[in-house]
Amino acid sequence: MACLLSILPQRIVCLTEETTEWLYLLGQEQRIAGISGYTVRPRRAREEKPKVSAFLSAKIDKILALQPDCVFGFSDLQADIASLLIKAGVQVTVFNQRSVDEIFSMLYQVAAMVGEAEQGLVRLQAMRAELEAIQHQAANFKRRPKVFFEEWDEPHISGIRWVSELMGIAGGDDVFPELALQSLGKDRIIADGQSVVDRAPDIIIGSWCGKKFRPEKVAARPGWQDVPAVRTGQIFEIKSADILQPGPAALTDGVAQMHRIFSQWEALHG
Question: What are φ and ψ of residue 45, in 5° steps?
Answer without folding.
Answer: -60, -35
